[in-house]
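Troubleshooting entry. The earlier prediction with nickel (II) ion gave an output that would not parse, so I re-checked the input for stray whitespace and re-submitted. Clean input:
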Amino acid sequence: MRVRLVGLVAAGLIAGALAGIVIVPGAIDRLRPPVQVTSIGKAAVGGPFTLTDHTGRRVTDQDFRGRFMLVSFGFTFCPDVCPSGLQVMAAALDQLGPKAERITPIFISVDPERDTPEQLARYVPSFHPRLVGLTGTAEEIQSAAKAYRVYYRKVKDEKSTADYTIDHTSIIYLMDPQGEFVAHFTHATPVSTMAEKLAKVL
Ligand code: NI
């Protein structure tokens, strides 16, 4: 049973990683294996982080214990993938109704230069009233991304006003009230599929 579960989790994460590669063209040769399965049968995704939220408050992963978290990484200047993922997440939560209050949706920036708490405060409410935007120093973000096996890299982009864009993995992780990985989604997951999966675990 344990072996089967590990296999299922691994298969799911590999599928997720492949989706990430499709979303981030050119990432495939730089992407390290995104997941390791530990001997106790838990996917090694998630872990401690210390960041600053969109109201300027310092928060850690411990502040979310006792609640489910839907965690995604991205940046507010992302033209399409991040907004799509956040829209799917918000619509799925709305579809769940009051049950969704046990879930905290979280958006962690991989763009500390542009995504200040003030910038996040302008961005997150346009998707969901309870969406928490998190940012931090380059080191803090790097450490959070590492815990979630998220790849990101600044790349030059003449079309962008700031001269750069950021390639990044765009997986949405569902974490349980103990902070353990439960499931993952992508920006292409249908809203109803995400809502059904969430309803099952709540
Ligand atoms: Ni993005």
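This one parsed fine. Strands lie at 50-53, 58-60, 68-74, 103-109, 132-135, 152-156, 164-168, 171-175, 181-186.
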